[in-house]
């Protein structure tokens, strides 16, 4: 497809708007998370060491802990022995550097 055709397809066929940015999407996700998870709730999140759960934990942490007490969110990483060599330690180090309240079992 020619560039002008993809623009036409996105805007007029799919109904997308031209103002999308990653920053806006992240803010929408943060707002949604804060609305769903009320201030009186404690969140437990399991982090298996994979990219998806690690990124999810980091984003969740960022959304909920901007002004809240860090004791609300508890991240748990279970080192089950099935990750690649030293991968569990790398995951733990990376997440702790982000300030997550991470417990390793």
TrEMBL record:
InterPro entries: GMPS_ATP_PPase_dom, Rossmann-like_a/b/a_fold. This is GMPS ATP-PPase domain-containing protein. Residues 20-105 form the GMPS ATP-PPase domain. The keyword Cell inner membrane does not apply. PANTHER family: GMP SYNTHASE [GLUTAMINE-HYDROLYZING], GMP SYNTHASE-RELATED. SUPFAM superfamilies: Adenine nucleotide alpha hydrolases-like. It comes from the Eukaryota. ATP binds at residues 48-54. It comes from Daphnia magna. Keywords: ATP-binding, GMP biosynthesis, Ligase, Nucleotide-binding, Purine biosynthesis. Signal peptide: none annotated.
């Amino acid at each position: 497809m020619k560039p002008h055709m993809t623009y036409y397809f996105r805007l007029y066929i799919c109904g997308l708007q031209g103002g999308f940015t990653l920053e806006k999407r992240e803010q929408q996700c943060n707002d949604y998370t804060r609305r769903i998870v009320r201030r009186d709730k404690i969140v437990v999140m399991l982090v298996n060491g994979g990219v998806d759960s690690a990124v999810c934990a980091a984003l969740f942490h960022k959304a909920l802990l901007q002004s809240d007490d860090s004791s609300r969110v508890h991240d748990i990483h279970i080192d089950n022995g099935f990750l690649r060599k030293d991968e569990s330690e790398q995951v733990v180090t990376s997440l702790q550097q982000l300030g997550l309240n991470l417990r390793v079992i």
